[in-house]
Design a protein that fits this description.
5-stranded antiparallel beta sheet; alpha+beta; 18% helix; two-stranded antiparallel sheet; 135 residues
């Protein structure tokens, strides 16, 4: 045990092989338009392992298994170049958390995304054109 009272073997298993999925698959900046939208149902196509960003589990802990189904809660950016989707996975008993940050290449759409805000704006535009003339 170290002088600060922390045993590094409790935090990091030296046998764990880590793959840096953040920088290994990055080719600059993600596409301008997000691939998934808020509320969209998605499936995890690549297991998520703690890379050290989740402080309550050792590095290498399985955070979410392949095949888990969830919904996009929000879309953000890491370092202004990497899009991260906050996904809420439901009913996954073997996972220590329900909400995980995912990259686009780790997710697959389970349904088409409907941008309800854009649909409402289009309805309003058509309504104005039909009932409010500029004359």
């Amino acid at each position: 045990m170290a002088a600060n009272g922390i045993d590094s073997e409790q935090i990091v298993n030296p046998e764990t092989i880590l793959h840096d999925s953040v920088t290994a698959t990055r080719s600059g900046k993600d596409e301008e338009k997000a691939k998934f939208g808020i509320g969209q149902k998605v499936k995890l196509i690549k297991e998520i392992v703690n890379d050290g960003t989740y402080p309550h589990s050792p590095i290498g802990t399985l955070m979410m298994p392949t095949g888990a189904i969830g919904y996009i809660r929000s879309v953000g950016e890491f370092l202004q170049v990497i899009r991260v989707y906050e996904v809420h996975f439901l009913g996954v008993d073997e996972a220590p958390v329900e909400i995980v940050g995912c990259r686009e290449h780790e997710l697959e759409a389970m349904e088409d995304y409907r941008d309800e805000v854009e649909e409402e704006l289009e309805f309003m535009r058509k309504h104005r054109e039909k009932y409010y003339s500029k004359d």
